[in-house]
Design goal:
Elements: H1 2-15, H2 35-45, E1 49-51, H3 52-57, H4 62-70, E2 75-78, E3 81-83, H5 91-98, E4 103-104, H6 106-112, E5 124-128, H7 134-138, E6 142-146, H8 148-151, E7 155-159, E8 165-169, H9 171-180, H10 187-199, H11 205-214, H12 218-228
Parallel strand pairs: 5-6
Antiparallel strand pairs: 1-3, 2-3, 4-5, 7-8
C-alpha cells in the first residue's frame, strides 16, 4: 500500500513540482475524521492548492470540494485543480497551475535568477511546438515555442515573491534562450544579463557551453564570452 501511495504522490510532484509539499505532514487516512476535516488538513499541508485526485485518494468525496467552493473556501481554476482565495494573488503560480506544460523563460527567468533589474511587465513562457497558445496570449503572456525534445532542457524551480515554487529554466538555459532570440531582445538587457552571469559564483560554464551546443548558438556565445571573461 505504501509503495502504491509513493508512486501516486511522485506522479503528483512530477506534474505539479512547483507545489512545495511536505510528505511527513500529509493527513493519514483516519476513519474518525470527517470529510471536511480531512479536506481542511490537506489544504493546510499543500499551501492552499489541492487536486481532485489527491482528495479522492484520501477518500474525500468530490462533493466536499464542491461545498468548499460554494462556501468560498476554495476556487476551481482548472479541471481538477482548486486553490484557496489567498493564493489568487500569486499570478505566476496561477498561470502555471492552469497550464502545467509551460515554463517561465527569457526575461521572466532572468528576473527570477536576479540577472536583470527589470520587473517583468508581461511574463515570458515557453511551451512545446504545436501547443495551442491562444489562451496564453489572451492572458497577456509572451509565448515562445520550442521542440518538444528541448522543452525539458534546464528546467528548475524558483520561488515567486509569494513563496510558491514554479517551473522556470536555470541560468545557463536562460542565457542561451536570450542569445537565440537576441534580435528581438533589448541589447541592454542581454548585455547586463551576461555580465551578471559571469560574475556569479554559482555559474556553470561547462553546462552553459553544453546547452549552447545543443541549441546551436555555441559560436555566438563564445564571441560574447571572449569579451566578458
Amino acid at each position: 500500500m505504501f509503495f502504491e501511495f509513493y508512486k501516486r504522490f511522485q506522479y503528483y510532484l512530477d506534474n505539479y513540482a512547483f507545489i512545495n509539499y511536505n510528505l511527513s505532514r500529509i493527513v493519514k487516512e483516519d476513519d474518525m475524521m470527517t470529510g471536511t476535516e480531512k479536506l481542511e488538513a490537506l489544504i493546510n499541508n499543500s499551501k492552499g492548492v489541492i487536486t481532485s485526485k489527491l482528495a479522492a485518494y484520501h477518500d474525500i468525496h468530490r462533493e466536499y470540494l464542491s461545498e468548499f467552493v460554494r462556501q468560498g473556501k476554495l476556487e476551481r481554476i482548472a479541471h481538477g485543480i482548486y486553490i484557496t482565495p489567498d493564493v489568487w494573488e500569486d499570478k505566476m503560480l496561477i498561470y502555471q497551475l492552469r497550464k502545467n506544460k509551460m515554463v517561465y523563460s527569457h526575461e521572466t527567468a532572468l528576473f527570477l535568477h536576479d540577472l536583470t533589474d527589470r520587473d517583468p511587465v508581461a511574463y515570458c513562457v515557453t511551451v512545446p511546438t504545436g501547443y495551442n497558445t491562444s489562451k496564453l496570449k489572451h492572458d497577456g503572456l509572451i509565448v515562445y515555442t520550442i521542440k518538444k525534445e528541448l522543452l525539458e532542457l534546464g528546467i528548475c524551480t524558483k520561488r515567486t515573491t509569494f513563496g510558491n515554487d514554479i517551473k522556470t529554466y536555470n541560468m545557463e538555459r536562460t542565457i542561451c534562450d536570450i542569445l537565440r532570440d537576441r534580435n528581438n531582445q533589448d541589447v541592454v538587457v542581454v548585455s547586463d544579463a551576461l555580465k551578471r552571469y559571469v560574475r556569479r559564483s554559482d555559474k556553470d560554464l561547462n553546462r552553459l557551453m553544453k546547452y549552447a551546443g545543443i541549441l546551436r548558438i555555441e559560436k555566438i556565445l563564445r564571441n560574447y564570452l571572449e569579451v566578458l571573461l
